[in-house]
């Protein structure tokens, strides 16, 4: 079980081993892409179901229970419904930008998975700036939201996309700083090395504050409640997505869940020991940890009311950012002390 | 300039935008429409637009006999239909000088207070929803369901019962009514605790509501705000005590007040009022006598020539019925003084300087029902 995916990749690599280098690279690249896409889509389909069930149990309801056993086929019904919807593009919208936005939003959502170590030796591309790459790509999601909001030519959409920009610009900063502590301890930006450094103890034990900041900033990054100001259903009625229907809307929806999975994956990689764990296969451990983190995200979403935009930005700049800086300082002092105790030199 | 282009500050100055909020908007609670002038997200000016739910109830009443008007009153504030019934039938009874049987009076009090509770529960639930506290929607609605079950037992209808009649109530309650009522009242404190735990003490909720839509007592009085919204400004004014009607003087209850007059206080005061209503119902249950539920009234009800004004404390404030009779079996004119309409008048004042997110909270905290605003 442990090597099921790596064996599969080795098998394909064996088939093309005789061909020129560029063919090998192309084939393996496509294989990884297919793997990542499968991972994203399967997870998204399951998350739609999970979110409904989790919210239902939090709210003393049953949730979907009509389509299939225990409503397990509900995501299929949802997808079919969205496929059957009329595709409306507003008359006054900027047609090309409007059409492009839902596609562009999926690009970073898929790209970030390239550096996630899904299990032992199961990292698609082991970049030496893995964490940095993740942050840089993830923040481009804003562009697609802004495109959607601006091109819709709707005032609610405009307000929503402006909020998206304000939100991501501010939350990138503590998010990056919270990760810096981990990078300092591991001594590398490579996600594979960060996981390897957590073989004996998870970084959440060394970086509890860092994890907390990461969790809050990540919630804001993926626009989930209580920081779902971009959508703000009660005030700006789904914001940038207000004019989208059918599959275009579904793509935004998909990207939202893909981003949720992505930040959970990164959280597990950085703080919860990645794929490390006893007995079970490494990729299963990874999946279990990701779902625990996703459950906490959902729990938060269905418990807290939405925060106000000005409180939200205040909280970011006046609380999270100083805390993240303090965390870096403490990590630095700790590292130096550790170095002194173990090596006897400053 | 070095860069080779020039800024014209006049051109760069921010402009305001006009935003039409409603009548189709999830947070305008029905078909209320606000025309906003926004500076960024800040509201510069708010203009109330009402009338999308106008059904001409007052005019329709002129062509209906007096008992026929009762179902129309249900559709005023459809969240507290029993209270509207009560106001109307008491206005007619006042003119005809009918003595209502004791049992009917008690049943009316029970139904009216249940209705008040149901209305407040909707307010609490929808307020929670408007700040995106999805989960806090469920406890109040779960309890409200029990109230509607009770209404169904008594009248056969859940939301629009048309239960009260001129001279009494439509029918006596079935035997299972009082045990069910008892069970409901016993489960009520649990709901209140749940709401308190889920949302009242939540830091984000407090941040969203404290100091938002602040209304001082003088302004409230100047605008004629009544009901819980006025009591949240610190004035203990309640018609049930100030100018009692029916058999309210026999019951012991407090008028809760809160000092700040902001959205948070307007939310909490509803929770406190639910507790007081439960107190009244418990007393009424203990005292209710056996007997008829309908006074002897003529088959064709005709009011003497003249006019009458009767007002009661509805769930939203003072609800008044002004009846003019020319001696026939139909009113010459029926005017309804609705608390929601008057309370809505404060909106432009409260909205000034708020951001859109605050505006949603303010709308929810005023707690108006468009059925009553437009009539």
What would you say this structure looks like, in words?
- The complex is a heterodimer of chains A (346) and B (375).
- Chain A is mainly α.
- Chain A has one domain (86-343).
- Chain A is built from 14 helices and no strands.
- Chain A has helices spanning 4-15, 21-58, 74-84, 95-111, 130-138, 141-151, 155-186, 191-197, 203-206, 208-221, 233-236, 246-271, 282-301, 309-343.
- In chain A, helix 4 (95-111) runs parallel beside helix 12.
- Chain A is globular and about 70 Å long.
- The termini of chain A are far apart.
- By secondary structure, chain B is α+β, with helices and mostly antiparallel strands.
- Chain B has a single domain, classed as Cytochrome-c3 Hydrogenase, chain B, CATH 1.10.645.
- Helices cover 46% and strands 13% of the residues of chain B.
- Chain B has 16 helices and 8 strands.
- Chain B has helices at 9-12, 57-61, 70-74, 81-96, 102-130, 138-155, 177-200, 203-209, 217-222, 228-231, 239-242, 263-287, 339-344, 347-351, 356-366, 370-374; strands at 17-21, 33-39, 42-49, 164-165, 168-169, 306-313, 318-325, 331-337.
- A 3-stranded antiparallel β-sheet of chain B has the order 1-2-3. Chain B has a 3-stranded antiparallel β-sheet with strand order 6-7-8.
- Chain B starts with 8 loop residues before the first helix and ends with a helix.
- The relative contact order of chain B is 0.19.
- The mean pLDDT of chain B is 87.
- The chains are: A mainly alpha (346), B alpha+beta (375).
- At the A-B interface, helix 7, helix 11 and helix 14 of A face helix 5, helix 8 and helix 15 of B.
